[in-house]
Specification:
Largest interface: A-B, 49 and 50 residues
Distance between the termini of chain A: 30 Å
Helix content of chain A: 10-25%
Low-confidence stretches of chain A: none
CATH class of chain A: Alpha Beta
Strand order of the largest sheet of chain A: 2-3-4-5-1-6-7-8
Number of helices of chain A: 3
Shape of chain A: globular
Oligomer: homodimer
Chain lengths: 139, 139
C-alpha cells in the first residue's frame, strides 16, 4: 500500500449549534463525506458529551476522518486524512457547508513522503474563507 | 469546555515490523499512551488490513489518538489531538519508543484559538530526531 497521503486539518466557526450537538446527524455526515471522497468506512467510534458536544472518528480504508464539536461556541475541529489517490478537500468542504460554517480555516499536510530512507510529512498550504469567499492562501 | 488544544502530527520510521502489524499490541499501546497523558479513553475503532497494516483510533475525553501502520516499510503515521491541559508530546514519545522508531518527525499544531470571533489553528513547530538525538527544530 502506498504511504503517501493528504491530511487536512480544518477549524470551522459560526456553525449551526443544533447540528453540532446532534450525534446521529454527525455520524451520518462523516460517513457520507467519506463516501463522497470514494473512501470505504471500516469502523466508527462516537461519543456524546454532557452537557453538550460530540467527538467522532471514522476509520476508513484510506486512513481516518474525525470531528470534535463545541456547540456552545459554534465551533468544530476536524481532520481528514486519506491515502492513495483520494482527495479529502471536497469531503471537508461538504462537511463545512452541511454544518453551515461561516468561516473555514484549512491546512493541508502531506504525509508519508519517502526522503532518504525516512518517511516524513510537510505542511503544504493554509487557506481561509468566509461564507464561501477565499480570504487568503498561504504560503 | 475549553476549545484550545494541541494536535501533534508524527511520522515515525525504522520501526519494529512485527509490532506494526500487531493489532492487539497497538490497541493496548494507544490506550496506555492515552492513560500516560491522563486522558480518558471513551471508545476505540481498529482495523487490520490484508495482507498487513493496522489503522486505529481512540476517542478520548480530550479529543483523539490515531495510528496507521505500514509494516512493509517500518513506517507509521500518528496524530494525537488533546484539549485542555493535557500535553500529548510525552504520549507521542512513548509510542515512538515502544515501536522502536529510529527516526521521528513531529509537528505541533495549536487548535481552537479564538481570534476576532473565529476559531483557528496555527502550526507551532516541527522537530526531527534520530535515535533520540534531535536533528533540527523549527522554526
Amino acid at each position: 500500500m502506498r504511504t503517501e497521503g493528504k491530511h487536512v486539518i480544518m477549524d470551522i466557526s459560526g456553525c449551526n449549534l443544533d447540528l453540532l450537538n446532534n450525534l446521529t446527524f454527525l455520524k451520518k455526515l462523516l460517513v457520507e463525506a467519506a463516501e463522497r471522497a470514494n473512501a470505504t468506512v471500516l469502523n466508527v467510534a462516537f461519543h456524546h458529551f454532557t452537557p453538550q458536544g460530540v467527538s467522532g472518528v471514522a476509520v476508513i480504508s484510506e486512513s481516518h476522518l474525525s470531528i470534535h464539536t463545541w456547540p456552545e461556541y459554534g465551533y468544530a475541529a476536524l481532520d481528514f486524512y486519506t491515502c492513495g489517490d483520494i482527495d479529502p478537500k471536497a469531503a471537508c468542504k461538504f462537511v463545512a457547508d452541511s454544518l453551515e460554517a461561516s468561516h473555514i480555516q484549512t491546512t493541508v499536510v502531506s504525509r508519508g513522503e519517502k526522503i532518504k530512507g525516512k518517511y516524513l510529512h510537510r505542511v503544504e498550504s493554509t487557506s481561509s474563507e468566509r461564507n464561501g469567499k477565499e480570504l487568503s492562501l498561504l504560503p
